[in-house]
């Protein structure tokens, strides 16, 4: 039997505490360089996007932009605004939230509190994942095929909201699920031990505990669907005029406003497109920031 | 292949927490030194300062001197990577690389250190597995994943991996605490054999184990919760277990602790 | 909601009396459980409905189609007789998304490594937030930026690639443009960076500390530790992340529609102007589409849906497989 004896030649060059072979050190440094570089590389588009949006968008960021629609304003005209589009976006996103949140939160409750290890739970969970990957344009096509072509409804803010709902549900389900899972089981058991029925335990104990996390998730989801353009093109169509009724007729929205204005070759239209982008990004970033602040401020004990 | 360790005035911190305070001791080459003491007394932390593994935890730092023969581990020109290659370590839970075969696990450190050539690698892998008393059990399945072995075998695989790079010192952090009694016995036999070639330091919770395997024993303790761990005394194992200098040591040994 | 029978109402009343605060007991339990389960079923229903209605509304247009739907390169569904095929769209979609994935994956993994292993813990969460900001920018804004900032810059880059790699047919051809499939791929790469990097980060978080320490204790440098303990463990997760990014890129509409200039026919030289994807074609042609035209767009959307569905399912399966190692 061989043993590791003195006279076995050393496996590696005799070790000195200050010596690591230069090639290993170079490789380590090179990878470190690449890793830093990749992060800087990602910063370039972010900074460039924000820079250009602010730079081009600030010019038309005036009161008129928020007070007027594009009614009677053609591409080459100065002036005009996105009032109709902002109204449309706010209404559509509000309807989306009202429809999507209950479905998504209940689905998450089902997955965490009721499904256990059952087959249905696994299937639902899997398809929620798959749903996350649905291209937004396909959601638009679906609403087009169902709501407009089959049921015969007209283009409307509601149709747009239905398409956005499909995109919002999976995000909120996942966020809610994560938060519900963080609620310690002891809390549920303590409630059961008091004789509180299950649904009351969920609504009175579990949901309030997870509430801030769920609200954060919803705000992030709202921010996400707010920037969606593709499904709206197929469902709310276009209008230059103010339409405050989301249930009848084509409606404006900020993303489609930008899409419309950039397609116009005139410089004045492009200025409006950039300002539209600036307003859209500002709303989305504010929602993101608010969500993060809430999450940080009211972080539940279970989440460290 | 074995070196003497001389520690003087060593302090270790986790962020703002003072974990161990002012430790000085000498560990003789080709001997087994056991660290014992209650949980949280800093013995594992101290062990990790001996191969600069302590500082891989974010916010952790060390003050003081650890001389390995003539060189200070914390000297300005010293590279921690070279230190860890010179001072090997075996962990509490066996941690073979889950995606690698038994062979590749043992060869991992060698390949890092530039050992090339199949014949050379084969030879050292076999030697190391022999040295870890594992060769006979795995020689027919060297290509299988290391994670498929039993806990005791995995731990011996980790020992083989550690000794394959021929370290000067082998640190063992409660190497048997996750193992059954038979696997524990196998590891203890192995320690007895390895001390002919390596300087071994072992942290253990099990006082019988310390008594069985070590030549010297060091007892660590804390004054109270939140206080830093201190070295109470270090001496020949037989002396510590029969006639320690300090009352605290005696209390701990005889189970009157706390 | 079901109406209550008298018996149930009595039972409720009886239950309510001793414990007023706890209320409706079993009935509430049943109702609530069914509402929760119903929502779960609704999600499945929506997925099924998407497939069913897209197929249903695509069939008339497909019947009227006089060209081969899968191999024809023309998209002329508003003509009489309608002629349309998805060959060019499929080519543009797959090509631009593959380019995006190939560019984005290494950078995204680099970012994930940077945040997980190269930056201090305090900085890490801030950096993660910066990457999330990249995901928060809407696609219309990327499109706007792409057209006015990136496209002009791409001419030089494309020329350089053409000069060096022109012998490869893909990068060949005379007179490269800037509104090309390649440019679309670059915009898409930026857009899918965050999802690939955030999933990779999640995977890296799950690498057992013990494996990392084992590598360090063997005297591995930081890169060697990553190579020994992190990358092998996270491999399937990273592959899954890249695939999810690919699926995202394929479905991305607006940015691509703004960047690409439509030129009919498949052009293998991806540095030249032109090309179209499933999604960009739908966005660009919808407002002028006839009834058959809409049906044709729905049919192409159905193909996109099936492709992304398959990629997503495969990606999820790959990501889930990493649970093999514990």
TrEMBL record, chain B:
The keyword Transport applies. InterPro entries: AAA+_ATPase, ABC_transporter-like_ATP-bd, ABC_transporter-like_CS, P-loop_NTPase, PstB-like. Residues 5-247 form the ABC transporter domain. Keywords: ATP-binding, Nucleotide-binding, Translocase, Transport. One of its GO terms (molecular function) is ATP binding. It comes from the Bacteria. This is Phosphate ABC transporter ATP-binding protein PstB. It comes from Actinomadura parmotrematis. The gene is pstB.
